[in-house]
Amino acid sequence: MAEDLLLLGGSGRLGGFLRAAAPGILAPGHRDLDPLALGEEALRAAIAGSRGVLNCAAMADVDACERSPTAAFRANAELPGRLAAACADLGLPLVHVSTDYVFGGRPGPFDEGAERCPVQAYGRSKAEGERRVLAGGGTVVRISWLFGPGIPAFARFVAAQLPSGCVRVHEGQRSRPTWGPALAAWLLALARLRADGDEAPSILHPTGGPPASRAEWAQALLASWGRSESVVEGKPGPEQAPRPRDSTLDGRSTADWAARAGLPALPDWRERLSGMGE
After folding, report:
1. Low-confidence ranges of the chain (pLDDT < 70)
2. Chain segment 198-227, per-residue pLDDT in tens
3. Which of 101, 122, 186, 269 is catalytic?
4. CA distance readout (Å), 133 to 81, 86, 227, 261
5. Cβ–Cβ < 8 Å for 58, 122
6. What are the phi and psi torsion angles at 73 (to 5°)?
7. Per-residue model confidence (pLDDT) at position 32
8. What gap in Å lies between CA 224 and CA 216, rounded to an integer?
9. What's residue 278's pLDDT?
10. What is the widest separation between alpha-carbon atoms in the chain?
């Protein structure tokens, strides 16, 4: 079925899940449409043929953002603001994907109305992007610890340490793992709802399953593989940017609204570990 939503950032992990969930979605490659390189009129023209925009485009490498905060601000704050302004001018809904890393400066969990408290350049740039999107009337969706079938980043990170007999993970970091294919279906349902003219809360926290520390997530992965290596919390490698100790999203309000709106529920992340190889 042809899809009349425009997906920006379709080459990333979440973009891949979205393209798999909606093969007909308008998802131009970076060579065909680089929104950062477009002026205001060209950006308006690029989105004008759609019924709504789903923005996953971002500079998401946390350490790279710390090294290049100007580039991070341009991609994660200025571009979403420009998209929001263009969508508002054209009367198009914008669903903008953000992150739990807009939090971390104090203990969570954080509900949709919580004050942002980022602890690194990536989180600060995404927080400013949220402000600009909300000012333009867009919808912000915060997501956390995305994973999916096969060997995604965290599972690969854990698996690579198995020969040592011990898995070292970030000390004290806590959030909510999220199953990517289900999140993609949820985001598409939200974007279609907005494209049909229905209202939605300005900030949403889709979640599935309980919070976990990095150690608890690693232990759950090992158990799903039938392994029993020890898990140690610490600093597993060099990094430039601080990580939030707790960026747990409270998604209860979002879950209540989504159920009333008919959006699909997200599964408990622990039920999807068997879909990931070792």
Report:
1. 1-3, 150-151, 236-239, 275-278
2. 999 999 999 999 999 999 999 999 999 899
3. 122
4. 5, 11, 44, 22
5. no
6. -65, -40
7. 78
8. 12
9. 53
10. 57
pLDDT at residue 1, as a whole number = 41
**Which amino acid is located at 16 in the chain?**
G
pLDDT of amino acid 198:
96
Distance CA(187)–CA(235), nearest Å, equals 33
Single-letter residue type at 242:
P
Q: Is 122 a catalytic residue?
A: yes
